User: Fold these one by one.
Assistant:
Number 1:
Amino acid sequence: MNWNCENIEERLSDYLDGGLPKAEAATFSAHVAGCARCTQLVASVRGLVGALHALEPVAPPPHLVSSILDQTSGPRTSRSSWRSWLGWTRAVWQPRFAFGALTVVVTLVVVTQALGVQWHTPTLADLNPVNLYRSADREAHLIYARGAKFFSDLRVVYEIQSRLQSNEPEAPPQKPPAAQPAAPGKSEGPETTPLNQNHADYGTKQFTRFASALWMAPARSKP
Amino acid sequence: MQRHTRRIFNLCYRFTSNRQEAEDLSQEVFLRVYRTLPSYRSAYGAFGTWVTSVTRNLLIDHYRRTRRDRLTDSIEDVLPQVEEKESAGRRPDHSAAVVELGVHLQKALGKLSPDLREAVIMRDLEGLDYREIQTVLEVPEGTVKSRINRGRIELARVLDQMGIRPD
């Protein structure tokens, strides 16, 4: 393309903004390099664009935003004094906050219980780190001792049960009850049959015998 | 809100060269945006572009309304103090030359025709691209480019007449 001063002026912004194809930009530059008028024009416009880009934004007045808000969403009503003081409590009634507060309280109760802090007679000594440590240590040992005792008790119960089962003799063969015709009008619901009664008596006798044996065992073991 | 306020205020200030007018116009813009918000459709363009469009319409209305007053008024009386105070307050280390250049640039902008002024402000001060300016001005892209180009050349000439040569 053959550039003249008029074309240069028309496409100047395209050239400065990088909107010209490479070949055209090269011929553009070639014309500008050989033309004093266009050199001066390009330099001044380039300098101007740079200065405009570097121009700092002006800060709006501080009250502008509040004035706009007053005009659009209306002037903010001033609350009465006690309402403004209690305004923060609105957040407390949010479910999230309430659940969070509840969790904190429960955690505190559990921790203080574990530390052995006695709140019925609160003293400053309760909050002493040494006392807190001692209480925590004592509680930990107590918990361990209770757990060990519970485990031991369980073992005794299991032992009793297993001995009861091992001492239980084979069920003696019993004669089948004579078939009796059901009395008319009598229901066939669950009721204590002679066989069930025998089992119950047998279990009671066995337990009594075992308990007395267990009771007497230490006495017998004595010399 | 803060971002839009700042942008709209700057647009108004650069167009009117008057801080008080810019403040009043910014309030008017937001009032109009608030009232016409239900008519805004995303198909029209980004919200920022729409707000710019509302601002531009108000600025043109304002320009037409105050044309007579402007003939007897001179911005030279108020502009330098405002600009200098603003810039010095924000950046104490700002060199006097840059502050002075800003004052002269604003003065030169005020001498452009509204068509060229708004195109240059939107492109070189607000950083809008050609498509956004086309949407705001509702003119073809070729016209937008032509106005920006003519605006820059005209502004450079005005500055040259004022004896200012930005490097």
Note: Confidence is low (pLDDT under 50) at residues 179-192, 219-223 of chain A.
Number 2:
Amino acid sequence: MNSINDAVENKINGLHYGNRLLLPFHAHILKIVIDDNIITDFSNDSKEVEISCKNNFMEIYFLKYKDLMNTVSEFENIKMILVEEGKDIFNPETHEKIALYLEDAHKVRIEKITEDILFIE
Amino acid sequence: MLSRFFLTLCRIIICTFFVNTDSIAETTSYTESISAVSGIESSLTLPDPLMMLPFIVLLIMIATGPLLFRHFWEHHYPKIAIFLGMITVLYYLFVINDTGSLFHTLAEYLSFIALLSSLFAASGGILIKVDRKATPMLNVILLLFGGVIANIIGTTGASMLLIRPFIKLNKDRIKPYHIVFFIFIISNIGGALTPIGDPPLFLGFLRGVEFFWVVEHVWYIWLPVILLIVLIFYIIDSRNTIAEDVQRTYSNTIEFKGIRNVIYLLIIVVSVFVDPNIMSWVPDFHPLPFGLREIIMFSMVIIAYRTADKQILKSNEFDFEPIKEVAFLFVGIFATMIPALQLIAYEAKMNGKELTPSVFYWVTGALSAFLDNAPTYLNFLSAEMGKFDLDINNKLEVLKFELEHPVYLTAISVAAVFFGAMTYIGNGPNFMVKSISERAGIKMPTFFGFLFKYAIPVLLPIFVLVWLIFFYGEV
């Protein structure tokens, strides 16, 4: 199983199909910003997203969107704050901020959010 | 007098819902120009008050859509805005055969969206990084700076240029009130000093109001209002202690990237004056609903986007969605507000003799908060001038009006710009600033949250003070 850092440093891409996003690690998500939509409800009853962890990846369905490619344009991204599975979620230093860029051929480029990109926790 | 005018307004609204409108349409036909904006002297029929319904429905949907049916609204707002706008367009085309009002509204809309989209695209390629510790005083300085430059590059240009640095500066302590005060000062009130600052003043300038008349007659209202709002911000911001325990080192530098786009911004600002009414060499493309100015501005959108540094666009997460949202919503607003403006202009003209600067201040303000402030300003300028038997289409008479009755012109100039800060739809940049902030992860207040939690408590008392000090009792 890859860690978030593995995915970023080794440029391991995720995948996107329609409203489904597959990420090559397991993590607890704290916040997602897609378009101008701020998502913080990750309960089982959430009307926004459905998250599940498989053997060596996690998948997120964005229930309110048909196709993520139509929502996130070239210079935009999906922003997330997440905590690696197994790490202390209550320690703010474990909170990772990542940006996901959707590319052709269903690829999702995963980058750590730098100071340049606006993302308020 | 104030109550009488509001009664008239209420009458229009009540008629819309409860009265047999056939009889109203019959009795309110009249044969004079009801479109102050168009300047077309032709026989026109006053629209049926029922035709205010699409506008009211659109306003209600803009206010409640993101709150009550967010995803339906996000997916379908372009269709809804165009559908409601089309009702008005078809009514004007086939029921009252008034193509003049439609044509002029289209020209105004193209001007409006050309300016907004060009400033949006040009500023999207500029990156300003302020690496300093955010303090209430530094925020105050930035807000004041933005308020001043809004008069040079417009409220839209200043908002687009400064919103990201403002959020970044405050990233450890940002709260919705930061963005709200940014909208108050930089996206609206700051731009009250020059015709470049805000579109209504520019339309007044095109009609003949001298360029420096505004700063000469508004600065003594602008300054205390800005200082008062900034003071309120300072008090609130001083109580924000979220970031006190954040340990961070700062280089205390300001980094600026994208100088080429600054040149584009300057071209856009200069092109504002490329108008046949100002420069005789500028070709008049009439009957086309746009001119050389709009061509320059739309070209700047393409050039600025194509030539921008891709890394800056990535850092700014540049996307046309915010301007697309404004373009669609305002196409609906511009179209559906034609009947509302004409009915109000008619009432204002009929009662013009009895209207005081106080009435003009409040009514222009109230309507500017919910309608677009540019046509509102022009209609009330026309009504004010009509009160003194002057014609808005005659530049010499506009000059005479500004010299002999400055308090009237001051009242609508101040109200049109200041009250644009009351709602998200009061001025174009308000929506764009909201959208950029949400994309940065800041949960912004809803339409009603903005109005009731911030605009009414903070701005309304100040606007009442402005009225009491500068317009109350003036005749």
Note: Chain A touches chain B through 19 residues (CB under 8 Å).
